């Protein structure tokens, strides 16, 4: 029998190799259980609104008016919408060539790119060029556009932190490149060691791989650490010495739950270093409305900013972007409001600040509740979530549990997470989906369940975990150290 183009055996092998654990086996099983009527708590993906977070009022008002511009002609519109939301909606509609139903420039609306550039300048203290900012359908689309441009074949390598967000491993596989891991050190609060980076590059080159770029995720996903200014300087000097493009995944820059290490952008540190380094290191930075305290994941608004990228290369990246014709326009408007929120003199300012502080304050509390909860469990150790929206506890699985997993044909942490799901309805992601050292096991969960539900969720986890350990430990007191 002749094979057809979409028969499994004839598919692109790069597609088959690509894995995305966040929506993998655990998620699919959780979805099955939900369809059977079981209550599922989806903590597998950073999706704030799906776990009950309410949207911020002002951006929704602005986009609602842009989506239904006929409301602006209604005499009673001012009774329902504040004047600053009406003015902002009129401004954004004036930037389009036919409202939200029309394509924009493939790079995004120029007026919103200008707003992004002004935001970056306020944040970093250095001018930003709107012509080097492309708006994208979420940060993920921007990451994929850049990786597709960099990767020429299997001998091209991308340095990626392990544990890593599986977008990177999946996209690198999809584009036919090679992932070059550099391991974060759990005992040093997921710190980054430059010597480890050098070793990773050396080993890759010995295998004939040309290392072309390095990814940093700051604050970290799934590990939640925040990089210090000193660490960022080391990374930038390393990239300069090794001629690597630095890809700065900074989508969690608003999610910081401690005061010792506030977020600082790679671009600011680079500019502060001055010439020649500030003129030499090629940097692409990413941000999105999906994360932060906005949580507008479904809107798919994001941007990438290019620093020290040659003009001819910028033109090629434009070509890649233009294949998709246009980033979605409502997402662009959400992004515009995020980077240019209400100001102190605006009518909506007080409500916007009140809502924002409430979300961030609650996330900080939830980060503590979850970390403390995990650390109260047998054979579980967890670093504090300094930033982002995840906990990544290490589960010290007894040998009997590892053997039981092998007998069941499962990776040990997948085995544990499936048992957790069946017993409690808590849907997590096994650490093996993010990468981890041999013989070490983790799970990743978001800190996003409602604050009032968090103690109950952690009590449910503790009950399951302690029963699991009781079942599989050969003796009491299995070491947590």
UniProtKB/TrEMBL annotation:
From the UniProt record, list the reaction(s) this protein catalyses. Answer: glycine + 2-oxoglutarate = glyoxylate + L-glutamate; glyoxylate + L-alanine = glycine + pyruvate
The UniProt similarity line reads:
Belongs to the class-I pyridoxal-phosphate-dependent aminotransferase family. Alanine aminotransferase subfamily.
Q: Which GO terms describe its biological process?
A: photorespiration
Q: Which Pfam families match?
A: Aminotran_1_2 (PF00155)
Q: In which pathway does it act?
A: Photosynthesis; C4 acid pathway; Amino-acid degradation; L-alanine degradation via transaminase pathway; pyruvate from L-alanine: step 1/1
Is 4Fe-4S among the key words of this record?
no
Q: Assembly and interactions?
A: Homodimer.
The record's GO molecular-function terms, alphabetically, read: alanine-glyoxylate transaminase activity; glycine:2-oxoglutarate aminotransferase activity; L-alanine:2-oxoglutarate aminotransferase activity; pyridoxal phosphate binding
What is its cofactor?
Answer: pyridoxal 5'-phosphate
Q: Which GO terms describe its cellular component?
A: peroxisome
Tell me what this protein is called.
Alanine transaminase
Gene3D superfamilies assigned to the protein according to its UniProt record, in alphabetical order:
1.10.287.1970, Aspartate Aminotransferase, domain 1 (3.90.1150.10), Type I PLP-dependent aspartate aminotransferase-like (Major domain) (3.40.640.10)
The family database entries (CDD domains) matched by this protein are listed as: AAT_like
Q: Which residues form the Aminotransferase class I/classII large domain?
A: 86-447
Sorted alphabetically, the keyword list is:
Aminotransferase, Pyridoxal phosphate, Transferase
Q: Which PANTHER family match?
A: ALANINE AMINOTRANSFERASE (PTHR11751), GLUTAMATE--GLYOXYLATE AMINOTRANSFERASE 2 (PTHR11751:SF373)
